[in-house]
Predict the 3D structure of the following.
Amino acid sequence: MKTINMPSLSRRHFVLGAYSAAALASLPFSQTLLADSAALISDVKILSGNQFDLHIGYQTVNYTGKKSIATTVNGSLPAPILRWKEGERVTIRVTNHLTEDTSIHWHGIILPSTMDGSPGFDFTGIKPGETFEYAFDVKQSGTYWYHSHSGFQEQTGLLGAIIIDPKEADPVAYDREMVVLLSDWTDVEPAKIYSNLKKMSHYYNYRERTLSDFWSDLKTKGFAQTWNDRAMWNQMRMSDTDIADVAGYTYLINGITPAQNWMGSCKAGEKVRLRFINGAAMTIFDVRIPGLKMLVVAADGQNIKPVSVDEFRIANAEVYDVIVTLEADSAHTIFAQNIDRTGFACGTLTTNPNIKAKTPALDPAPVLSHSDMGMGGMDHSQHTGNSQNAVDHSSHSTSIPKPDHNAHDMSAMSGMDHMDHTMHSMEGMDHSSHDMSAIQTESPATNHLAKAGFGSNFDSNGKIIHPKTETGPQTDMRAEAPASGLADPGIGLRHNQHLYGRKVLTYADLRGLEPTRDTREPTREIELHLTGNMHRYMWSINGQSFMDAPPLELTFGERVRIILINDTMMTHPIHLHGMWSELETGDPDFIPRKHTVLVQPGSKISYLVTADAKGRWAYHCHLLYHMLGMMRMVKVV
């Protein structure tokens, strides 16, 4: 019998108040503006069936010793888990108890554009005091999630998991399942964070270069290289320690801090399915469970041919399902460190609650290199197999930091205003541009299609065409020689096989479990450049802001190839609403389908899209403070 585990009451004491859906529904609107009672929130609720009532309201929470206001669903952070059945029709009535418009976007769910929940497209949002009824047929199975697409409400807590049971027998065998929903929390108002980044893009970068770093570089690189490196970065007004925009978050697993330590219990020998969801607003996580191999069985809700790994990177909005098996009387830490190594979320997976698992130290902080700027380096596109063993990633970094396991041992990260930054080496952010932008620029289907057709390995030999709009003050960098991101584990992970013996998942490892559904070759290519001005914190696509760019128009039924070129030093997770993004990983017969694709700094990646959903759809970077500009409307007619 398959069971699902969620946190216990004792580990949720930090949330100060809650109302059930029934209590919220029974109160007048004026009384539901702020739920604040002495009652404790119990386990995250699992709501099953095909009729649901969700109430969005304010909630007082305390993760850091300071009371803050969260945006919650049915008084819960995270929101209740919704369990659906493939082939059924679900109806979800969402009532807005806020003082502002709200929405719920069903991330990765294939549905009509009017039900997608993206204000400004084919949906107008939910006004204060109003109820909107979502109704659609469930056409898929797997792990997904839902979140607000209004303002900064995703950052303030409006997010939850979705599990869809398959209509037929599940091809993945398991005995127990657990949702592992990762998120980032701050007591600082999101609008204030964005304002700080606009004023000073490196506002939250606690790893700026120091004089001691200079002397250290002299010892390892010599004077000439150190001088040239510093001169280059200074001339560009960029920092090689800018890895992530915002550091200092409190990182959560299922709404629980590292100090409170989420716990999942299982029996020895059970196959446990962990449904990992990255619901963070701005944080990319690198996940491992020391002492356990993870068998990756699904990506973004879609079954894949199983891949055994020790570690995987999960970008904002991505989803991975893994199978693990514990021995008797054992405990293991689920460790999710952020991409810039300034903090982590963690929990315990155990067969015995009395056994404690050691929390590992953070890995050394990564540093950007020339390759991350698209200045050349190893092209990983030709290695589509066991990527960690097949690819020499040494060209991607100017130096390999030696692991220092004594430098960081942080048990809990508190809110930004309460962080003692003297305790840890705070690093990176990429405060690259933040002007909200757009997408497009079609390059003619050149020799790439004729040469390789379907399994083209990311247009690795195609000519990069920078659009005319990608010039001016809205952009400060262009990748002239971007390497393929297919088999690249990413910054901070490239040497982990060599240093630690940890096999890291890459996109090159992914193969669909079922045969490719649409085997037509694409009739055209669309090359899109992810752009920005890091100094001014302006983000865009093809150098155009969302408001200035025309829609990207697709003809209903057509098959296209989209090539993404990342012309920034920031890692961008790109999400296409309403349609699948089918990664070309070298096997045209088993192409994996994803809803969110991570694009490494200074790299390129491509996927196929079948325009099988009419309407107006959002297409954007899923980093919340990038989304305002790095977005385009996709119109399927």
Observations:
- The CA atoms of residues 220 and 427 lie 21 Å apart.
- The helical segments are 21-26, 190-199, 211-221, 223-236, 387-390, 447-452, 496-500, 624-627.
- The two ends are 46 Å apart (CA to CA).
